[in-house]
Specification:
Chitinase A, domain 3, 3 domains, 12 helices
Length: 344
């Protein structure tokens, strides 16, 4: 049976050089893991070389996205098949002296440096993530959002003002708002009776928010024009936004504290290092020397901002696709940032 190589976190399938490098690094990591023999059974042997449960666990972490949709049994079987192929192909690469090529040596050196960096930053981040540090962040973020008003509203969206006026007349005669939304609204959320859930003023476009936050609960607006068409808005209720419980946002806060500590650690190391950029003038190189350059994506400045603590109660605009259509650009940026635990 031929087994295709799953995709890794960093992209496409391994080349032979990368396979050999990965096998080498996996062996080093596996040897360092404090796993008891009885908890780390041998799952397969390839030409006498053992593949243990800890090897599978390490490979699952590396292969990540390509395994997301698999059930546990299928995932384990695929990863084990991958490791068997990896050992076979890596051995063939060794026989062909692939590791002696300059390209392989460069890739191995880079992979080693990246692994050293990741391991050290993980240690620094873990050390900084204490209960006291997380609770301090929680308290500061809570102060920023407590008291902000939220509105729970429904709406009916149509293309023309005449359509909106006709619907407004039906509502004045006692028509059911939710039923009319299901029948006449062109919004994707019409099947929910036009329900937009709770939202803050800046989560919607200005024209929409201006009316929604002026109406009293139970009241229905006149036709409102926005870039999406004509809306009839009904406010269901209003409330002061409250910070969610600590446990509900603990994971976001933990991510923030960890990344902030890592970014600060890299900045400290960079400050002490002598960095020379030969491709840029000295002043430009100094300006461009930012700590996030050491770890793409994970250490960008925005990921070290205070975490957003979105109200977890459903429904919310951030979880309802039809509500997102009416967001302002600023609100959209904040929603995307919040997905990564970033303050907005």
């Amino acid at each position: 049976m031929t087994t295709s190589f799953p995709e890794t976190k960093t992209g496409l399938r391994f080349g032979l050089a990368s396979l050999a490098a990965t096998a080498c690094l996996a062996a080093i990591l596996a040897a360092s893991l404090p796993v008891r023999a009885q908890d780390n059974p041998v799952l397969a042997k390839v030409n006498g070389v053992e593949i243990r449960q800890s090897d599978v666990a390490l490979a699952e972490e590396e292969l990540g996205p390509s395994l997301a949709q698999m059930d546990p049994a299928t995932k384990k079987d695929n990863v084990l098949a991958f490791l068997i192929d990896l050992r076979i192909v890596a051995k063939a690469a060794e026989d062909k002296k692939v590791e002696n090529s300059d390209d392989f040596k460069k890739r191995l050196a880079f992979t080693r440096s990246r692994l050293l960096m990741d391991s050290l930053l993980a240690t620094e981040g873990k050390a900084a993530t204490t209960d006291d540090a997380m609770k301090k962040v929680y308290e500061e973020a809570s102060k920023q959002i407590t008291g902000e008003m939220e509105v729970h509203a429904r709406h009916i969206l149509v293309e023309t003002e005449d359509e909106a006026k006709a619907i407004a007349e039906e509502l004045k005669k006692g028509g059911d708002f939710a039923e009319l939304a299901k029948k006449k609204s062109k919004d994707p959320g019409a099947s929910d009776g036009g329900d937009l859930g709770f939202f803050t003023k800046e989560q919607m476009v200005p024209e929409f928010s201006a009316v929604a936050f002026t109406l009293e609960p139970g009241k229905i607006s006149d036709p409102v024009k926005s870039q999406f068409g004509w809306h009839i808005i009904k406010v269901e209720e209003k409330r002061a936004r409250k910070a969610p419980d600590f446990e509900q946002v603990k994971a976001q806060i933990e991510t923030y504290v960890t990344r902030k500590a890592q970014a600060e650690y890299v900045a400290k190391l960079r400050e002490a290092a002598k960095v020379e950029r030969m491709d840029k003038p000295a002043e430009a190189a100094k300006t461009d020397a930012k700590p996030d350059a050491a770890k793409p994506d994970a250490l960008k400045p925005e990921t070290a901002a205070a975490p957003a603590m979105a109200q977890p109660q459903a429904p919310t605009p951030a979880k309802k696709p039809h509500a997102r259509r009416y967001e302002s650009d600023e609100a959209k940026a904040r929603r995307i940032a919040a997905r990564y635990g970033i303050s907005w």
